[in-house]
Amino acid sequence: MKALLLAIGLGLITVLQAQDPPASGEDTMAMSGKWYLKAMITDRETSWKKPELVTPMTLTVLEGGNLKAETTLLINGQCKEVELILEKTSEPNKYMAYGGKRVVYIEPTEVKDHYILYCEGEIQGEQARMAKLVGRDRESNEEALENFREFLRAKGFNQEIFSPKQSDTCPPGTDQEPEA
């Protein structure tokens, strides 16, 4: 009888553990490090300027599971340093940014070391959506890009995908200014 109770108890624990989502701390730690922007899209082209060039994005895990994202964008001949804090929520892979004005989802793709960053909320005073495909290396990956296209179709995007030029640093002779 004790063996039967032990087997049932262990089976129940196994089932309950299988129903729990993966530990978000492990997922968050997997996101830490350098990421290359492979493709991006937004549904608000009117006021949003496409970057001419981007540096790799660095994600740093902060206390409490929040993330700090840092990158530099070259827009209209000026380099803009961008630093953003993504505040962890109770939902896995969901973060808040800009004081709750934007919701950011970090979704894994079927391709190793590739994620989709999906953002919705206020961007430059307008309601907008944006999605970015990021990967651990700067090489193009057709399978990851196809996963990104499928994600975009499911979200109802019909705009053209943009792939910015990559550089490790901002080009010499451009003014560098931090973005607020």
Structure report:
- The longest helix is centred in the N-terminal third of the chain and has 18 residues.
- The protein has 3 helices and 11 strands; from the N terminus they run ααβββββββββαββ.
- The N terminus is likely disordered.
- Helix content is 22%, strand content 41%.
- The radius of gyration is 20 Å and the shape is globular.
- Strand 6 and strand 7 form a beta hairpin.
- An 8-stranded antiparallel β-barrel has the order 1-3-4-5-6-7-8-9.
- The protein starts with a helix and ends with a strand.
- By secondary structure, it is an alpha+beta fold.
- It has a single domain, classed as Calycin beta-barrel core domain (Lipocalin, Beta Barrel).
The percent of residues in helical segments reads 10-25%
Roughly how many Å apart are the termini? 66 Å
Instruction: Detail the poorly predicted runs.
Output: 1-25
Following the backbone from N to C, one meets helices and strands in this order, namely HHEEEEEEEEEHEE
CATH class designation: Mainly Beta
Number of strand segments: 11
Main-sheet strand order equals 1-3-4-5-6-7-8-9
Which homologous superfamily in CATH is the superfamily? Calycin beta-barrel core domain
Number of helices: 3
**How many individual domains?**
1
Range of strand content? 35-45%
Oligomer: single chain
- Main sheet: strands, sense, barrel: 8 strands, antiparallel, barrel
Tell me, what's the shape?
globular
Structural class: alpha+beta
GO cellular component, one term: extracellular space
Protein name: Major allergen Can f 1-like
Subcellular location: Secreted
Signal peptide: 1-18
